[in-house]
Design brief:
By secondary structure, the chain is of the alpha/beta class. It has two domains: 134 residues, no CATH class; 241 residues, 4-Layer Sandwich (Purple Acid Phosphatase, chain A, domain 2). Helix content is 46%, strand content 16%. It has 14 helices and twelve strands. A six-stranded mixed beta sheet has the order 1-12-2-3-4-5, with helices on one face. Helix 1 crosses helix 6, helix 4 runs antiparallel to helix 5 and helix 5 packs antiparallel against helix 6. The protein is elongated, with a radius of gyration of 24 Å. The relative contact order is 0.14.
Length: 390
């Protein structure tokens, strides 16, 4: 990413972040008499909460520690409150405007309305954040049963456990890795796939506790493969990728592997590799050149963009992640508007697509609009040419 592009991006993010916090601060200050009278404690506490996430990220980049972890966690919860606080307070302002125009909210009642709308905002936000936090701690197994109309030789079925967006770092740590390892072992897959964003960003929290050593992939017939996500580059690919590979995880970087039954797996570099490193990923057609297309072809691509490319190249199955399915309501509706497929299953021609909501998360440890999940794919192969069936 070019320096001026990065500076523009940071300026936009900080402008949105600061204006949202200022709006919430002023609403609280003018709505609740206690906040108005507390000329030191209210602004001090608000300032510390509002800048905890930013301070945590800067401290993490400089020197990762328990303090930076705590600031990231606290700041993450504040990000969730920013979202819900802003939305609910904006809604209350619109309701207030309507009632005042209709003459239903005279001046003496306006202060009461503002006070209780702010307190109700706090209560509703707390319920959504607390519920989303509990939900984030309980990963689900999302199962898909699909058929590929191609022969895989003597292999009539394949059981794949696929995990995207682990986001190892300040929040996803040893407990989560032990939990993930246990679930994968119970699933007894033939093949394990990691669909990118294994780490969250800065490598300090990961290296400090060597977090990936707690990930224990189950013994499986066809092994373990992974691809890069955009966060592998955010954290610096020169540190991130060697660390992942040092744990025995085979990262496919625009590479093809063929497993038992002639099943071909294409692992693509994340599309952000060019933005961060200048390395352009190879076109899908080039990766498919020379492959036996009478046998199943599975593409691993972290970001579910340009789905037409896989359809045009007659890929049988594409697996992706990245979107978190919005992670928090109502952002799940936003990503559904941005992506052709933001979550779940879709078929275009003979190509099938599955996008996971991911195991981990970014920012708030809150999932109020989606679930933490591990995907279990039961794939059946059917040779339509020879007329054989499962």
């Amino acid at each position: 990413m070019k320096t001026y592009q990065f500076l523009i991006f940071i300026a936009i993010v900080l402008a949105i972040y600061s204006s949202s916090n200022l709006y919430i601060y002023l609403k609280g200050y003018h709505s609740v008499p206690f906040f108005h009278s507390s000329r030191i404690w209210y602004p001090l506490v608000f300032f510390l909460l509002a800048f905890a996430f930013i301070a945590g990220k800067f401290l993490e980049a400089w020197h990762s520690s328990v303090v930076s972890d705590a600031l990231n966690i606290l700041g993450g919860f504040w990000l969730a409150f920013m979202l819900y606080g802003f939305l609910f307070l904006l809604l209350s302002d619109l309701v207030s405007l309507f009632l005042r125009i209709a003459g239903m909210l005279p001046g003496e009642r306006l202060l009461h309305f503002r006070k209780w709308s702010f307190l109700l905002t706090l209560a509703l936000s707390f319920v959504l954040i607390a519920g989303g936090f509990i939900n984030a701690l309980i990963p689900r197994v999302k199962q898909y049963d699909i058929t590929i109309d191609k022969s895989a030789g003597n292999i009539k079925s394949l059981r794949i456990a696929a995990v995207s967006d682990i986001h190892l770092g300040s929040e996803i740590r040893k407990r989560s890795m032990n939990q993930l390892s246990r679930i994968l072992k119970e699933l007894k897959p033939d093949l394990v796939l990691l669909l990118g964003d294994i780490v969250d960003g800065e490598m300090g929290p990961v290296l400090r506790s060597d977090l990936l050593r707690y990930f224990k992939a189950p013994d499986s017939r066809d092994g373990l493969y992974a691809i890069t996500g955009n966060h592998e580059y955010i954290g610096g690919a020169r540190r991130t990728i060697p660390y992942i590979e040092s744990k025995g995880i085979r990262l496919l970087k625009d590479e093809v592997v063929t497993i038992e039954g002639g099943i071909q797996i294409i692992g693509r570099l994340d599309r952000d590799s060019k933005r961060f490193t200048g390395t352009e990923r190879r076109p899908l057609g080039e990766l498919l050149a020379g492959l036996d297309t009478t046998r199943p072809v599975i593409v691993l691509d972290h970001q579910p963009v340009n789905l037409a490319e896989s359809e045009q190249q007659r890929v049988d199955l594409q697996l992706s992640g990245h979107t978190h399915n919005g992670q928090m309501w109502p952002l799940n509706h936003v990503v559904n508007w941005i992506y052709e497929l933001s979550y779940g299953y879709k078929r275009k021609g003979n190509t099938q697509y599955i996008v996971s909501s991911g195991f981990g998360l970014w920012g708030p440890r809150v999932r109020s609009g989606s679930n933490s999940e591990i995907m279990l794919l039961n794939i059946s192969f059917r040779d339509t040419v020879r007329g054989t069936a499962d």
